[in-house]
Design goal:
Elements: E1 2-4, H1 9-17, H2 22-30, E2 32-37, H3 44-53, H4 57-60, E3 66-68, E4 75-77, H5 88-94, E5 99-104, E6 115-119, E7 130-131, H6 135-142, H7 153-156, H8 159-183, E8 188-193, H9 195-207, H10 216-222, H11 225-242, E9 250-253, E10 257-260, E11 263-265, H12 267-273, H13 303-312, H14 315-324, H15 328-333, E12 348-350, E13 356-359, H16 374-389, E14 400-405, H17 406-409, E15 421-425, E16 430-431, E17 444-445, E18 459-462, E19 464-470, E20 478-484, H18 488-495, E21 500-501, H19 515-520, E22 525-526, H20 543-555
Parallel strand pairs: 1-8, 1-9, 2-20, 5-6, 5-8, 11-16, 21-22
Antiparallel strand pairs: 2-19, 3-4, 6-7, 9-19, 10-18, 11-17, 12-13, 13-15, 14-15
Helix pairs in contact: 8-11, 9-10, 9-11
The structure holds zinc ion.
């Protein structure tokens, strides 16, 4: 399985048509393909948790990059320990299958499996990022340093360097996987290429004349950057395919799609204007509790001091301070999320990276003020109605397409961990991020710069990702409709000849296989062994490592 992070048929189809992606064209011609529905909201971490388990987020409990800590307003980064339900890798391992899994999100800490794994960028540099740990040395000996992600965002401000770094990362990963594919035994091999997602976030406006930030000069220089990354990946696909025998099935997928980002909505500012939230003037000094957000976003600091620094230090001054004191940035920006608000006067708030809304509920939140039952429902109804009326001042158009009550999109034992309301933006062209260091100053901003850089964030995720499959028994040249990311685990198990656990929400995508193939090889099911998911929740990251993860998420625009 090859994951092309954030890949979309909106780009692939026209580029296939003009002949720019010959390998993708051939795979689509000789196999079946179609859109792949992500989870709502289409965020990397919950989407991959759904891929890994074949379950909706209500069953695996991962809804965002961060999760709230029960009984507090604190949050912590989601890790693979936050995910419940057996992983695809464990299921394959339990049947004796050997796996190789490279760069899949929400997979760190790595489980012990029958096979080998290399973690995604949620593994801090300071920790083992491979299973077994000695695999890291082997990769280093054979390939050289493995690039988890391209991290130097100051260097990436030079967009030509950024472009080179993206291709360097693709080359590095390609060498690694070709080496592993040839030198290790495997029944199931999966790799994710992240460059497609990163380039779409940062280079979209250069190729899209309808984008509010489009500029013809920049388009001349960087308009082809996204296409060049797709072309590079296409070449890699050719190399991967040449290593496969006729008994091997190839699956391509993306965990979500991509499209232009039109604007940023600061929901907490909107809540303030609606009289539903109150920002605090000063926040209290406190000490950090291990595992709380304090250990992720730096230490608690007196807010007054923060605003003083932010107001009185020039950008230059701040960057030179940052160089002198590497931890400074997080200290200046990092403030406990919960200390931003006066909870006794806050009825609803937003937290997370897309548009997740929580009600300050009595009995659940420590200082909850909204009564469960009728008051909670009325408030949710009111917020939905008001959000649907919200207009973008730049265009006069409706900003919110739909607001889901959590029970409309999730089901399962972790439903209570989900946001109370989940926003889907019009044309999926907006983004909502929280500023942890200061209160939002206006509801709308048309620009989001990657943290402390001049890199503009002009593309964002879409609900439709891609799916393609080619191999024995697979129909040729068929476009299918209605596939979902939760269907991939059952479909992969089917291809491997293994039974599908009966608690998976996804289904085997039977429509892509010939009828006689399905008759000869019917789908089998097995009882789920819940007992086998016994990993214990514990703090995964040290303070420094949490800062490192925060930096990586900031560099992708997922938090600000
Ligand atoms: Zn992304």
């Amino acid at each position: 399985m090859v994951g092309l992070d954030g890949a979309t048929f909106d780009l692939i189809k026209p580029w296939v048509k003009e002949g720019s992606l010959p390998n993708l064209a051939r795979i689509m011609e000789q196999g079946s393909y179609g859109n792949l529905m992500s989870v709502i909201p289409p965020l990397t971490t919950p989407a991959w948790a759904s891929f890994i388990t074949g379950k909706n987020p209500g069953k695996h409990g991962v809804f965002d990059f961060a999760e709230r800590i029960d009984g507090s307003y604190d949050i912590r980064w989601v890790t693979s320990l936050s995910r419940r339900g057996r992983s695809l890798w464990k299921i394959i391992s339990s049947h004796g299958g050997e796996i190789g899994v490279i760069n899949i999100p929400n997979n760190y800490p790595l489980e012990d499996v029958n096979g080998f794994m290399v973690a995604w960028m949620d593994a801090p540099d300071s920790k083992n990022f491979t299973y077994p740990p000695k695999l890291a040395d082997q990769i280093k000996d054979e390939i050289g340093d493995y690039i988890i992600t391209i991290l130097d965002w100051k260097e990436n401000e030079d967009l030509s360097r950024f472009r080179e770094n993206l291709h360097r990362m693709i080359e590095n990963r390609t060498k690694t996987i070709l080496y592993l594919m040839e030198n290790k035994p495997w029944d199931f091999f999966a790799v994710l290429f992240s460059a497609t997602d990163i380039v779409q976030h940062c280079f979209w406006s250069f190729m899209d004349p309808s984008h509010p930030e489009y500029n013809p000069d920049e388009a001349m220089r960087f308009g082809n950057t996204i296409k060049e990354v797709y072309r590079h990946i296409d070449t890699v696909l050719g190399k991967i395919e040449s290593k496969l025998d006729e008994n091997t099935t190839l699956v391509l997928m993306s965990d979500h799609g991509a499209g232009p980002l039109r604007g940023v909505v600061h929901l907490n500012k909107w809540f303030e204007e609606e009289g539903l939230l109150k920002f605090k003037k000063e926040s209290p000094i406190g000490f950090n509790k291990k595992g709380s957000i304090a250990s992720f976003f730096g230490r608690r600091i007196i807010r007054g001091c923060l605003s003083f620094l932010k107001k009185h230090l020039s950008q230059d001054m701040r960057s030179s301070l940052k160089k002198a004191f590497p931890g400074m940035r997080d200290k200046v920006e990092g403030i406990l999320f919960s200390s931003l608000f006066d909870w006794t006067k806050t009825r609803a708030y937003s937290l997370g990276s897309y548009g997740n809304i929580y009600i300050n509920l009595k009995g659940r939140e420590p200082d909850g003020i909204v009564e469960p039952g009728a008051e909670y429902e009325e408030l949710r109804n009111k917020i939905i109605a008001r959000l649907l009326e919200l207009k973008d001042p730049a265009t006069g158009k409706q900003v919110v397409k739909k607001v889901y009550r959590r029970e409309e999109i999730y089901h399962g034992e972790f439903l209570s961990k989900a946001a109370d309301l989940v926003v889907v933006w019009s044309d999926e062209g907006y983004h909502s991020v929280q500023r942890f260091g200061s209160k939002e100053d206006s509801v709308f901003s048309n620009r989001l710069n990657l943290h402390l850089t001049n890199i503009r964030y002009t593309g964002h995720h879409r609900l439709n990702g891609i799916f393609a499959i080619k191999g024995r028994g697979v129909k040729q040249g068929i476009e299918i409709d209605g596939a979902s990311i939760i269907d991939l685990a059952p479909t992969i198990l089917y291809v491997l000849g293994l039974p599908v656990p009966n608690d998976m929400d996804g289904r085997v995508l039977k429509e892509v296989f010939d009828t006689e193939h399905i008759q000869r090889k019917p789908v089998r099911f097995e009882e789920t062994d819940d007992e086998s998911d016994k990993r214990l929740m514990h703090d995964v990251y040290t303070e420094t490592e949490s800062d490192e993860i925060a930096k990586r998420l900031k560099s992708l625009g997922y938090i600000e």
